[in-house]
Amino acid sequence: MPRRKVPRVDxxxxxxxxxxxxxxxxxxxxxxIRSYECPKCKHKTVKRxxxxxxxxxxxxxxxxxxxxxxxxxTRAVQVE
Length: 80
Known about the structure:
19% of the residues lie in helices and 15% in strands. It has one helix spanning 19-33; strands spanning 46-50, 53-56, 62-64. A three-stranded antiparallel β-sheet has the order 1-2-3, with no helix packed on it.
């Protein structure tokens, strides 16, 4: 029996735009769609409502975060 293909978020692009661009886009969209842990009630029910706005579906806590993840990681910049 042949294996079934795993449905991907980038399947709508088919063979267009190049494989590297589609893989990067797929990783970003999977991060955006995921459920995250609420900083207030600690349940894994936080979803994105708009760009940078995140809301917990359990307690209703709304907060600002990153565009694709609720918490953004900043890199330390060394100034010489």
